[in-house]
Fold this protein.
Amino acid sequence: MDVQACFDTIEQTKLIGILRDILSEDQYVIQRFGQVNCVGSRLRRKFAKKAWPDDDSPDFLTAAAQLSEALRHTIFVDQVVYSSSRKEDMIDLLEEHITENLVKARKSGRPLIVDCS
């Protein structure tokens, strides 16, 4: 079964190994912030998080300036919520999401659970 973003055709152990290589630092600071932009004639607000290496986390203005290069016409709002996460905790959470292989969707107003394994 091919379900978008289900990881059903990706070798899971290889993907987890790649993630271990990508996350090179032992500790990360996670900044939570709001984004406001205009979609048509309406304002859209969403919340996002960005992880930075613990010893290289910028102040919010610097982070917003970097984000604005990719997200034009967007207002960034500092939520003043900063947390810290260890690499191993992040890998454990990603591994759980990847290997659980459970997709929840709605069909005809009723919950539908699809097991992709």
